[in-house]
Prior knowledge:
Layout: H1 5-8, H2 12-29, H3 32-41, H4 49-69, H5 73-102, H6 133-157, H7 175-202, H8 210-229, H9 238-244, H10 246-268, H11 270-275, H12 280-292
Amino acid sequence: MFPPSQIVSFNLQALSGVSGSISIACWIVVFSPQIVQNFQRGSADGLSLAFLVVWLLGDFFNIIGAVMQGVLPTMIILAAYYTIADMILLLQCLYYRCHSHSLVSPDGSHLSPATPLLEPAKDTEPELPQTPMWKAALFNTIAIISVCLAGVLGWYLSPSPSPPSSEDDKIEFSPLGQVFGYLCAILYLASRVPQILLNYKRRSCEGVSILFFLFAGIGNATYVMSIFANTYDGDKEYWKYIAVNASWLLGSLGTLALDAVIFAQFFAYQDNADDGVDSEEGSEDERESLMTGI
């Protein structure tokens, strides 16, 4: 049976539960759009390796901080899941990078006097048909609504939480957990910088899934909302609860701001992707980026 308490009233605690459930749903699928897009293109040159590596380090510290701080086992399991998904995306990117390097002749045969007019090996990445903007927007909207509805449904079917009733349930402040939490926040913030710089250098966001960052943005926004709304009437430890979660709030709010920069780049460089403005110069920048990993 459905829990009747979820239907009777919708207060701050219910808002916290709905927001947290939507956040979990977004983070479960966050990497999927980028993994699928890399597979379709047969390339991962749009993503910065430094972005993924630093994000992965942040995931590791997130797990350690969550364990030290003593958060819910569900959140620790989810943190471990994020780390595994991040590793899958990173390994996929490394595979495509290595594969693209192996396609270039290492012996310089394309410079042979017998074939002086031949150009160096070009990218073998398949030319995918451009999806009309309205179709892409419609697909992204449907995907986002579906995931959010799944989050709401998850909250609706879950048992109603009960307020802390004993000293064992009270909020505890773990200094070591906080250290790892703030390290996690710093790494999450730092991870966006290489991707922003790569997009700027290429004057393009081609190869980067906007749905990837949309899910990350919604996941962070709803996570922040779930923390601020998570209070029981008359709970005197609310601000202590906020202080305990301050590092995770910093990481989420900070990455939201940096993701806004990436969204701005998507729109600013949209015409470049459509018109192929960065054909020669962009190709050189991409090759250099592949070598440096930025």
